[in-house]
Model the fold of this input.
Amino acid sequence: MARLLTRSAPAPFLLRRPRTNRRARRSPVGGPRVHGLGLARRTRARQLPPREAAQRTGNLWQLRARIAQGRGDSAGSEEALRQASRVYESAGFDFEAANCRYLIGTLRLNSANEQLMPSFGESETNLKAALAYYEGALMRSQAGDARFMIARLYANAAPRIDRDIGDRMLDAALEHLTDGEAGYDAVRRDYATGSAIEAQRGKRTFVSASRRIYELALDITAGYRFDAKAAWQWAQRAKARALADALGSGSAAPARIMAELDRHPASLALVARERELTARIERALPAERPALRSQLAELRQEMARDPVLDEYLELRTGVALDSGELA
Done:
């Protein structure tokens, strides 16, 4: 069973590394102690606002986690992340706390490859906690990352446990991969309706994320289960996505399609409205985005019902073929 390397797993964040003191002392988690030992006492002396002091403390715990991980001390890294998570939660930094839970989950996923219990439960609990926050905050990219990690955890565990339970885990893994794929594609569409530069940036960002979704789905359907039909469907979806990315469909629709839309002002107005809403979401405050995203979802449903836009939408998103359509 392939060992998932935490370093290569795309984390939803990496906080900027705080400055360190050159006159460093030793840290209980290994490596040099960063400037910040007894930070609570020092920040009180500086009379920092409590929330800012908590954020700095959490950032320093995260730095210690990264130092420990770099030294191969997974236990020290996990303990520092737990400390950071507690600090962030106490001060209301829910996003940062969720990121810590995500990283703890990936560390435990690696441990579960060596010894299934109790690392499996710890990994699942922390990854699901992170996923719940990301979905509630409409952070679809981070939610897709968390869903992939949960699916990877289930796929790794399935061959090592009771067959019936393992089958249910594989079913759940495929559901997470399907939802993760949909989340990545939704973010892609947001990029695709913006400028060409934004579209290219989004495409580069999600090529590798989507690839690992399809690779794991094929491992499950063709390797663990030998389900030819499901493997075929996932392969077709992967090919459609790869073709859409290769054609640069996220950058701009071909002139032929746009010329056709010019003859249908109502359809062209829907495309313009989509671009406008996407641009507003990029500039909006976090509290304003849920309402704007709801408007965008309703607009895209209307676009999907417009037959004039079929080719435009298919080229942008990629359409998987059934085996019968290849005849």
